[in-house]
Amino acid sequence: MRRTRLVLGFSLLLVAIAGTLAVRWLISPVDLGPRSRPHGAGSRPRTATQRLKSESGQSSNRLPAIDPNLPIYIGPTRRLAAQAIDDTAGSTLNQALIGLARRSLGQPSSTDPLAQQPTEQLRLDLVHVDGLRFLELMLALVNSRQVQTRTEAVDRFSDHVRQLRYEGGEVAYCRRHHDFSRWAQAAERQGYLVNLTPFLPGVRSRRRPLPVHSSDPGLSKPMRQPANRTCLTALEKTLAVDQAYVPLAGLSAVLPSLRSGDIVAFVTRRPGLDVSDIGVVDVNGQQINVIHTTAGPGAIRSEELTRLARESNGVIGLTFYRPIPNSDGQADH
Questions:
Q1: N or C: which terminus of the chain carries fewer CB neighbours within 10 A?
Q2: What is the pLDDT of residues 220-243, one digit of tens each?
Q3: Which of 242, 263, 222, 241 lies closest to 136, judged by CA?
Q4: Which 3 state secondary structure label does DSSP give 85?
Q5: Which residues contact 75 (CB under 8 A, 6 or more apart)?
Q6: What is the pLDDT of residues 57-97, one digit of tens each?
Q7: In the chain, what are the domains?
């Protein structure tokens, strides 16, 4: 009997040991070698930059370049553009343009935002006003109205800005129209404007070298890049324009030919400038006013265009352009 108990106890001990070993074997990790592991097992999830590196072969510290043609809307500019296009849908082109110019009164000015960007991009800003960019945006808006949806309208708006701002619509610093005269000539070639000045009485003309932006590399962040300095320096060596203008003494004879929405530029003798100011004609009965932008106050209306021109330092005359529909709102390509 005692022997039977010993055998039974020993058997139970063996069963317990065997059970413990079996449990340990079942829960122990087994390394089946690198070919059996799922991809990425035992490591942290890869970041987006690491995935770009493995998928495209790029260095982990370089992201894909941003397409400069993609518009960057400052603040609520996208919404403001859609609303402006909606609000002027039933107006003629010149009525729409002067309506938008009047709406801009009181908007703050800003220093040239494009001068602060080291990389050229298609920046659109309807929150602030800035001289030539102000006219450019107004002209793009009134040519973006023959559309079915707001999305199409805003897309067309950005496309018109690109065509107006850059030679051939190519977003690059050396392709940007830095001066009014070049901008106006390009807009005329593309069918956005008609130069009224050569057809007005008493007109004169002059050949004027355009401002030399390349002479001061510290003027803007883009000019700090050697490639931009090189191309702009080469461009400006022989850059000049033929300007037709109505002398101050002859302005009274041309005022009856103007209408609201026309564009006016103040031709100046000041060194290094082709024009000293630009704006939109605003006719109020017999009085010819101008909506333009100034540093500080922003968009303002100045009464009596003739008086303003005579009181402006260095101005010798005015030149006038009339906006026209650009192929029913379709930008040229």
A1: N
A2: 677 677 777 777 777 777 788 899
A3: 263
A4: helix
A5: 125, 127
A6: 444 445 455 687 899 999 999 999 999 999 999 999 999 99
A7: 72-327 (2.30.260.10)
